[in-house]
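Cross-posting from the chemistry board since nobody answered there.

I work mostly on the small-molecule side, so proteins are not my area. We synthesized pyridoxal-5'-phosphate and want a rough idea of how it might sit in this target. Sequence and SMILES are below. Is it possible to get a predicted 3D structure of the two together?
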Amino acid sequence: MATTTATPALSGREIVDLAKKHTLFEWSAQAKIDPIPVARAKGIYFWTPEGQRFIDFNSQLMSVNIGHGDERVIQAIHEQAQKLCYANPFMATEPRARLGAKLAEITPGDIDSFFFTNGGAEANENAIKIARFFTGRHKIIARYRSYHGATAGAISLTGDPRRWASEPGIPGVVRVLDPYHGIERGWESAESSLAQIEEIIQLEGPQTIAAFILETVVGTNGILIPPDGYMQGIRRLCDKYGILMIADEVMAGFGRTGEWFAIDHWKVVPDLISMAKGLTSSYLPLGAVGMRHHIAQYFQNNVFYGGLTYNSHPMGCAAALATIRVYEDDHLIDNARKMGAIMRHLGRELQKKHPSVGEVRSIGLFGILELIGNRKTKEPMAPFNGSSPQMVALGKFFRENGLYTIVRWNSFYTNPPLSINEEQLREGFAIIDKGLEITDAGVKD
Ligand SMILES: Cc1ncc(COP(=O)(O)O)c(C=O)c1O
């Protein structure tokens, strides 16, 4: 029998130093970052090698929806690895076949065919490619307050400042404003937002527009829950002008909002739907783009020009099937709805108590708190695309007190795994409650 020599484990400090010396960290100037060393994780918690415990209040990147370390998914990955670790994407495998059929069951309307990718950006790349092939048009409408991924096309679709460094990007992207205009200006009605979009469609020439891509609930740009009528209105505009509607459900999908997909709240059927993250709860990389029946039919006799070595990876597909079973067996979408109601209540309590809390938004277990430095003007606690000493101090407090979440600009997120219970939710909110004393001290009026 083969033996292995145990390598002595590295300390947290050694892991960070070595990783920083030989690897490049995402979206950062390397000298400015101090990553958390992670050794293990279970349920809603993860630990450093030295045993510091964190509540994962962001499900890492809003993706470990079923919670960490679920033995059923680990077992399914193990079993698939023993049978077949890899088959090239021209092969048909059982996990690929079963996953396609399962997704056809849970996705909206007559979406019944899927192209499997390695993640969310690549799902969006293929969504716009499919839309362009199918319509013969080239322009894509996207919104400013959006993130669609970091590959060449997806970053061009992205409206937020992460796009700037990659410009000019791919041609043909037309950007429109969202119904939300930041904490100071607030929300516009669905009607006026839709009217502005229709005007842009007419000015661009509807016959040149292949698709409108939108996050159904905007994620990293502020958990923006569209006003009623907005999603239905986008669907109507797309139908009126022969434009395909692409729902980016990469972050909002798989129970995060209390429905399988966020778009289900508005009973709208998009033409294409992109997904990743919660699809495998990030146990293995996998994304997908789903399409309605008539779009899939188009590719019966027209070549689908696309494919990568790892598309439809059997390990990823097996992990996704096991993950979907966990959502079902543990009623996690129901739990997201129930815990979501409690989270909304806890958020409102914080808003009443803390002058720095300007707005609290959530749908299911997809939540955010926006902080302000002035009660009258609602000036944000940090500027657009910037930070402030108070927000930095709040982030430091969370880290020292064992709460992990993303602090971005004037906001921070409350996106725990859908398996969380009330006691754990309250444990997280108790740390937030204490931390907000720091930002309260920064409120001027
Ligand atoms: C809405 C949305 N779309 C696409 C992506 C890109 O997904 P990935 O990082 O898996 O490529 C993300 C990632 O955060 C996302 O939030």
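Reply from a structural biologist on the board:
Welcome over. Reading the output above for you: The first strand starts at residue 40 and ends at 42. The pocket of pyridoxal-5'-phosphate is lined by residues 61, 119-121, 124, 147-149, 215, 219-220, 248, 250-251, 276, 287 (CB under 6 Å). Happy to explain the token format if needed.
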